[in-house]
């Protein structure tokens, strides 16, 4: 008997019909002789609708209250899913984040898991029941308040449960067949990957591949959780995300995939005095807002003025609070102005084989140059190169690069109905 | 400084605009120098919509999961209300039933409060914040599960909090101006009562007056909580529900009001063997379902058959489960058939002065007879007489009786938009 954790996103449970379909799938896994734990997201667009309501009653909703509000979404879907399963004659019990022992820090809106104590989940399994856990949410012991893990938090919930329970596999159900060399909605000839290392998956997730969220992949890699990303519309194998153990040889392609990301904005702090510690001052202010900074570029200072510009990218949703925080400290830091650009796109190529293959950067820049695409910022890691372009030509750039690196498949990828997670 | 508990029903918080209006009202009470605790219902029709969803995924939704599902409604409204208040610059904290210490028994769907330990509510008040508490919900300590108090549970939440906190008054906001001699939607010349005893209110609530729920009135009477039923659309005084202390003389009108109730159904257990203990058998079966029985009538047994019929009324929503339970035991009990009638209406006249005034029953029956209205069942208490009629003539009967007892006012009552609670 295996212990399987299954995660279903919002598009898989968007209405009563799809909830019943998911329930059937879960019941089939149970009847095949497995213990099953399910992490579930809010139905369809529930979270966005609740966010809209919050902004209608308050320009800047209180973070504690916002978490209380948003966590109702997963409670609705988990209770409905448990009911649907029970009406098929199989025992099921739903648990909120706090009931499932998802202990987090107190950072409302993007809390981090500090401990997982799934006592009641284990009790449910011991009784032969399927445990349904609300994704995305946790509980802070000190404040006794409900928290949320941020967007994509249901993936993290699933992986954290899989790690804590020692699950054999954590299945992430989505509306595509697995992980692709590029988003099949953008690149028609994108190929499904049968397997990918956790390291590569991490870079893909960080680069805007929405199939898995970065924190979930990080968590899986750190705890050696095997992920299986697969379609909730078929029973085909999807993509296995494997954690490579020390010394193990894995033959890696030079380039695993190309990712595009339109979720970031660029903030430029212009006219920063070129004196020691100013960058530290700025990023201390930014860090206090809880925003996640991605790329940072500091221009060479203009000799005449002894002032420099610092640009960084961050999730669009964090931009407003960072701008507010920086404006409040403008006099202290002494910069001249702030610029906000939300029309940027990020293109990344990822591949473990890059380590041992020089010239990937050159190949990327050449392909973009031939297509007349301008590069505004560059950042690299050991197995990834990312560049910032204008937002409106990002998809075109991804297609160009996918072809340039010889990733195009022979057939077109299947894309199912539904778009979100 | 007074401590005021305010309860707002679903029609007072049906959308973002009305939530902001309620928030303003609460803030005004706080700024007038009072400590304020608020109990809030789910927005508009949320509870009914969630119930519909539950029935779409499961013919007979699991009670534990149903409570988990339904309690999200109040969590949404309380979080939005707290946000709205905070955005007006006043501190506010929302609490779920369990966070507010509403400890109940384990009867999902109609749990009873066994203890109220509002530690966090007190802490919030001590910090100068307004405490917003989710109505309708509680927490069972043994199962560690979330429970609901049944329909009208938000009134009970408000009164229980008022009792536990020693509040000066519990204000119940509604879409009418207070308690009337009859439903102003049915009887145009119904008069608002300035004050009513808790005892009379209890009978009115039990008789279908929807302005206050019976369990809330019971709780208020038992704990000496002063209720003030008033409109959320005006600042006028409403109706004060006073707990009469021992020996206090209150001049009571003979008839306080007339109530109509369309929420009940009648079940007849036909052909019950006329042997000792059969009624006990039947009502033991019914009690196990958790259904609340109202009126009971047992016919004289037909001598030829030694069998009798037992009829009782109960909330329509409980009928199906009671019928199912009885059918399952039909062979054991030995009755012949079950009849289900959901087209009944209940008319009640209530008044503390009835105690010392004979002839009220005769006056009621005469009025109904002159109007050609047939009476199917009768039940009485010390200060109430109720009769069952056909559902379609109930409103007419209420109007006739209101006039017959001289309750008609000189002007028409104001009825506001919105119908529910």
Question: In words, what does this structure look like?
Answer:
- Chains A, B: Pfam families: AA_kinase, ACT_9.
- The structure is a homodimer of 421-residue chains.
- Chain A has two domains: 3-174, 3-Layer(aba) Sandwich (Carbamate kinase), CATH 3.40.1160.10; 248-421, VC0802-like.
- Helix content of chain A is 33%, strand content 25%.
- The longest helix of chain A is centred in the N-terminal third of the chain and has 16 residues, at 16-31.
- By secondary structure, chain A is α/β, with parallel strands linked by helices.
- In chain A, strand 15 and strand 16 (307-315) form a beta hairpin.
- Chain A has 13 helices and 20 strands.
- Chains A and B meet through helix 1, helix 2, helix 3 and helix 4 of A and helix 1, helix 2, helix 3 and helix 4 of B.
Task: Record the SSE blueprint.
Two copies of one chain form a homodimer.
Chain A: E1 3-8, H1 16-31, E2 35-40, H2 46-57, H3 63-70, H4 72-86, E3 92-95, E4 102-104, E5 113-116, H5 119-126, E6 130-134, E7 137-140, E8 145-148, H6 153-165, E9 169-174, E10 195-197, H7 198-206, H8 214-223, E11 227-231, E12 239-242, E13 257-261, E14 264-273, H9 278-288, E15 296-298, E16 307-315, H10 316-328, H11 330-333, E17 337-341, E18 344-350, H12 360-370, E19 377-381, E20 384-390, H13 394-404
Parallel strand pairs in A: 1-2, 1-9, 2-6, 3-6, 9-11, 10-12
Antiparallel strand pairs in A: 4-5, 7-8, 11-12, 13-18, 14-16, 14-17, 15-16, 18-20, 19-20
């Amino acid at each position: 008997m295996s212990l399987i954790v299954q995660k279903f996103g919002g598009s898989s449970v968007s209405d009563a019909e799809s909830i019943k379909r998911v329930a059937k799938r879960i019941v089939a896994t149970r009847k095949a002789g497995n213990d099953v734990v399910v992490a579930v997201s809010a139905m369809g667009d529930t979270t966005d609708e609740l966010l809209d309501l919050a902004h209608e009653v308050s320009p800047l909703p209180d973070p504690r209250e916002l978490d209380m509000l948003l966590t109702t979404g997963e409670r609705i879907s988990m209770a409905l899913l448990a009911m649907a399963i029970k009406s098929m004659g199989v025992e099921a019990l739903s648990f909120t984040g706090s009931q499932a022992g998802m202990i987090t820090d107190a950072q409302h809106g993007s809390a981090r898991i500090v401990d997982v104590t799934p006592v009641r989940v284990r009790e449910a399994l011991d009784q032969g029941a399927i445990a349904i856990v609300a994704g995305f949410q946790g509980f802070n012991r000190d404040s006794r308040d409900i928290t949320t893990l941020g967007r994509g938090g249901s993936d993290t919930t699933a992986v954290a449960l899989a790690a804590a329970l020692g699950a054999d596999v954590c299945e992430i159900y989505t509306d595509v067949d697995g992980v692709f060399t590029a988003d099949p909605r953008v690149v028609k000839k994108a190929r499904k990957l049968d397997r990918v290392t956790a390291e590569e998956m991490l870079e893909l997730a960080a680069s805007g591949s929405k199939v898995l969220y970065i924190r979930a992949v990080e968590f899986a890699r750190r705890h050696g959780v095997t992920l299986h990303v697969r379609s909730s519309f078929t029973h085909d194998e999807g993509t296995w995300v494997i954690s490579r153990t020390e010394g193990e040889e894995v033959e890696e392609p030079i380039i695993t995939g190309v990712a595009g990301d339109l979720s970031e904005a660029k903030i430029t702090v212009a006219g920063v005095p070129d004196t020691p510690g100013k960058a530290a001052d700025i990023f201390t202010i930014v860090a206090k807002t809880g925003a996640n900074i991605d790329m940072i570029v500091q221009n060479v200072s203009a000799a005449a003025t002894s002032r420099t510009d610092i640009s960084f990218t961050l999730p669009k949703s964090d931009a407003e609070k960072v701008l507010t925080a920086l404006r409040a400290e403008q006099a202290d830091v002494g910069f001249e102005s702030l610029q906000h650009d939300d029309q940027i796109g990020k293109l990344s190529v990822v591949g473990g084989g890059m380590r041992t293959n020089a010239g990937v950067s050159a190949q990327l820049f050449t392909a973009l140059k031939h297509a007349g695409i301008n590069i505004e910022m560059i950042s690299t890691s050991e197995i990834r190169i990312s560049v910032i372009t204008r937002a409106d030509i990002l998809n075109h750039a991804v297609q160009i690069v996918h072809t340039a690196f010889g990733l195009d498949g022979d057939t077109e990828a299947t894309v199912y109905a539904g778009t979100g997670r």
